[in-house]
Design goal:
This protein is α/β, with parallel strands linked by helices. The protein is built from 9 helices and 11 strands. It starts with a strand and ends with a helix.
């Protein structure tokens, strides 16, 4: 993968958040490509439970300052950056006081999901792409991990479809079993349609539960990786029948060769 540019967009990444299937792979895969001589960038949300002092986050003034429109509201974009110790890997954090200051990731102390998680996901998707545009860094592949990042393929294929910077970029989505109960705000589909995305392209979002959000993401990706051994049979069958290039589950001890081959076949 030498000199190939891969953008990783994830809901969660260690060491900034607790270890789970998504956060571990969102570290292991970029590290693998970095070790092979690839050029990588990692983006994740700057949740309020990330310790900025311990992880030495600092704001990048030249990248911050623009406003993103989410459902007709102007929301200021703040970009912070940190380096993973010993790995020389930079991580960019998408931040906004309204969406990400609270001291948890997806739900409050009572375990109830934040009611604006849908808008946080829209803001995250737009924030990543706008920042990459400002960096003028052209990714060969964008690899998406976790449901909070799952709207990015939709926005890439519609809202940003005329961006010359991404004309050759391929999008890969890793699909995990790590989900949430219930649905996001049922207005999600209308908030996405506000950005000019046609209803028939995102009909699955009429019921914005975990599986439907992932199905929309899969349909807008160029390739799909089954990232959990115990992925639901319904999502597995959807991936297999989607017509997309897909990689079956590969365990942690053998994923490097499988992922590298999949990347090369996508390029």
């Amino acid at each position: 993968m030498e000199d190939k540019r891969i953008l990783y967009v994830s809901s969660e990444v260690v060491p900034y958040l607790a270890e789970n299937e998504v956060s571990l792979m969102s570290y292991d895969v970029p590290k693998m490509v970095n070790d092979q001589g690839g050029q990588i960038r990692i983006f994740m949300p700057r949740y309020g439970n990330i310790n900025e002092r311990r992880h030495q986050l600092h704001e990048v003034i030249r990248l911050s300052g623009m406003n993103l429109v989410v459902n007709d509201l102007d929301m200021p974009l703040i970009i912070k950056v940190a380096s993973i110790p010993k790995e020389r890997i930079q991580v960019y954090f998408i931040d906004n006081d309204e969406y990400f200051k609270r001291k948890a990731t997806f739900s409050g102390e009572d375990g109830v999901m934040y009611p604006d998680n849908d808008e946080r996901a829209i803001f995250f998707a737009k924030g990543v792409i706008e920042t990459v545009k400002k960096l003028n860094w052209v990714p060969d592949i964008i690899h998406v991990h976790g449901w909070m990042a799952a709207l990015l393929p939709i926005y890439m294929k519609h809202y940003y479809k005329d961006e010359a910077l991404f004309s050759e970029t391929k999008i890969i989505s890793s699909i995990y079993s790590q989900s949430f109960e219930g649905t996001l705000d049922v207005e999600l589909i209308n908030k996405v349609k506000f950005d000019g995305i046609p209803h028939d392209a995102i009909a699955d979002l009429e019921i914005p539960n975990y599986e439907n959000i992932l199905k929309s993401s899969i349909l807008h990706s160029d390739g799909v990786i089954i990232a959990s051994e115990n992925l639901s049979s319904s999502l597995t069958k959807f991936i297999e029948s989607s017509g997309k290039a897909f990689l079956p589950f590969a365990s942690k001890d053998v994923f490097a060769h499988a992922y590298t081959s999949f990347y090369k076949n996508m390029l």
